[in-house]
Amino acid sequence: MNGIIGRTLTVEDEREIPGDVHITSGRLTRRSFISRLGAAGAAAAATPVLAASQHAQSTAPPTSTEPIEGALHLQLKINGEIFPVAIDPRTTLLDCLRETVKLTGTKKGCDHGQCGACTVHVNGRRINSCLSLAAMHEDDAITTIEGLGSPTNLHPVQAAFVQHDGYQCGYCTSGQIMSATALLKEPCGPSDADVKELMSGNICRCGAYPNIVSAIQSVRQRGA
Amino acid sequence: MKIFHFKKVVSLAEAIQAGSRSSTAQRGAQVRYIAGGTTLLDLMKLDVEQPDVVVDINRLDLNDVEIMPNGGLRIGALVRNSDLAHHPAVQERYPVLSQALLSGASAQLRNKATTGGNLLQRTRCI
User: Fold this and answer.
1) What is the sign, positive or negative, of the torsion defined by CA atoms of A36, A18, A156, A121?
2) Which residues in chain A touch residue B112, judged by CB atoms under 8 angstroms apart?
3) Quick one: which of A77, A161, A180, B68 could link to A166 by a disulfide (CB 3.0–4.6 Å)?
4) Are A121 and A142 in contact (CB under 8 A)?
């Protein structure tokens, strides 16, 4: 990554960044690296506590194979694929996507529908997945950022975000892109102000707004 | 969020029957209908609302905007804010309603929020 700091990322650069996808064979991804770092830190911090307790239990997080009391068994159609899931009725669509189906491209920001990081499409319309129960979407077609494009075949909006540098830290980006792709099909005036208004449900703490707007406008002007 | 029983209904009769098990429809109701969920789930996450049963009414046939003979509009309880705001009859005859809807929340929330939920919303600002 150091080699590309200080200049605008290109589509080619982006394709080299593994991001959240566990596609590598033996290569260290960002997610696996942070997971290992977190586990090591937790073990170090927990050592005195564990030593003091005669009834110390495993600190391993619950796995998806553990039975859930009162679980709902349903099938969700995500990115064209059917996923059978067994979930607690309280599970939001966001948590189901991230924790059960392990599609971690959709991000959790505020968890109260204010930041837009969790934006996904349900039957082609954008919604905040944090304010919806997974159980409400059994008959719906859900699209996440993973279903939009791939590193070798970016959606035009994804390519435009790369070309226009529409992000800095990238945490809000999947939500921004899901919002932007939905916006293309919504009634929206031609001006930058119109785009800003319809993108107001997506917060970017880095303040990449001008570049996000120019990325979206470039796709709209091309009629994609 | 407190645990609840999730029930999906497909008919009005079923929905009414499910709701009748609640002693109140006001604050602290044991049964809550969920449509958009943009307010209810927000409040449930904060334990402000703690229903025992959540009834999903999204499959009910309440999605129509009808022009009535007397010149009025009949708006289904499940009509989403974005659909109502962009409905030709609303834009033409009630432009202020359209503008008001589009001034509220965000595009994502307007795609979920319903007319019924708006009327029954438990507001926190008064």
Assistant:
1) negative
2) 127-128, 131-132
3) A161
4) yes
Which strands, in side-by-side order, build the sheet including B5-8? B5-8, B53-56, B31-34
B-side interface with A, Cβ within 8 Å? 1, 3-6, 8, 34, 36-38, 41-42, 45, 54, 56, 58-59, 82, 86, 105-109, 111-112
| Partner residues linked to B6 by β-bridges | B54
Flag whether the ipTM exceeds 0.90: yes
Kindly give the interhelix angle for A156-163 and A173-183, rounded to the nearest 10 degrees.
120
Judged by DSSP in three states, A167 sits in coil
Cβ distance of A126 and B86 shorter than 8 Å: no
Partner residue facing B4 (CB), from A89, A132, A136: A89
Q: Which residues of B touch A182 (CB under 8 A)?
A: 107
Dihedral angle computed from the Cα positions of residues B115, A96, A81 and A155, in that order, rounded to the nearest 10 degrees: 80
Exposed e or buried b for every residue in A195-220, given b needs 16+ CB within 10 A? bebbbebbbbeeebbebbbbbbbbbb
Are β-strands B31-34 and B53-56 bridged in parallel, bridged antiparallel, or unpaired? parallel
User: Average pLDDT per run of 10 along chain A, which is 224 residues long?
Assistant: 41 44 57 67 50 42 65 97 98 98 98 98 98 97 96 96 97 98 97 98 97 98 77
To the nearest whole Å, the CA of B118 is away from the closest chain A CA by: 15
- Tell me which DSSP letter residue B29 carries: -
